[in-house]
Amino acid sequence: MQETHLAKLRRIMHEEVGAWQPRLLMIDGLIRLLPRYTAARLRPRLLQLAGIAIGHGTIVMGPVRLHGYGPIHRRLRIGAHCVINTDCFFDLNDCITIADHVGIGHEVMILTASHQMGDAGHRAGPLITAPVVIEAGAWIGARALLLPGIRIGAGSVVAAGSVVTRTVPANTLVGGVPAKPIRTLA
Q: Secondary structure of 84-121 in the HEC alphabet?
C-alpha cells in the first residue's frame, strides 16, 4: 500500500521536529549563560522548571546536554544529594535513573539508544533503546561512557575514560575499554 502524500508529509515532519523541546531549549539557553562552577544549586531548579525530576541537595556544575525524541523530560530522574559535573551528555530515548548520592564526572556520556547490527549494505540497522540505572552512592569518573541497558550497582566506581558495556555489581571498581572489574570495594 502506497503512503499518501499527506501521510508522508506528516511522517517527515515528525522525523524533522520530533526532538524539538521548546521549554527545554529555553532552560538550556539560560543554563549556558551561567559560568561553569557557579550557580550549581540554581541549575537543578531550572531543570526542574523544564519538568525533570531532581531530588533535594543535588548540584549541577555546568551545562548538560539532554537529547532524545518525544517527552524526554519524563525520562530523566536524578536523586537527592547528587553531583553532576559539567558537559555531561544524557541520551533520553529511554529512561535514565540516577539514585541518591551519585557522583558523575566531567563529560560523562550516558546512552540509551543504539542500533541493531544490519546487513553489509547498512550496518547501523533499526534503532533499539534500553534504560540505564545508576544506583545509590555510585561514582562515574570523567569521560566514562555508559551504554544502553546497563545498571551500575550501589557503591560502585567506574574509572575515568571507561566504556561500560555490561552491568556492574554493587561495590565494584571497574575500568578500561571495555570496563572490567578491577576489585571489590568495602
A: ECCCEEEECCCCEEECCCCEECCCCEECCEEEEECCCC
Strands 96-98 and 76-78: parallel
Beta 103-104 vs 139-140: how paired, if at all? parallel
Q: Which residues of 7-23 are buried (b: 16+ CB within 10 A; e: fewer)?
A: eeeeeeeeeeeeeebee
Are the beta carbons of 168 and 158 closer than 8 angstroms? yes
User: What torsion, rounded to 10 degrees, do the Cα atoms 100, 77, 68, 133 define?
Assistant: 50
Checking DSSP bridges between strand 180-184 and strand 172-175, what pairing results, if any?
A: antiparallel
CA 103 to chain CA centroid, Å, is: 13
Q: Any catalytic annotation for residue 73?
A: no
pLDDT at 26: 84
DSSP conformational letter for 4? P
What are the average pLDDT values for consecutive 10-residue runs of the chain, which has 186 residues? 80 75 82 88 94 97 92 95 97 97 98 93 92 98 98 98 98 98 96
Task: Spot the catalytic one: 73, 81, 115, 122.
Answer: 115
3-class DSSP assignment, residue 17 = helix
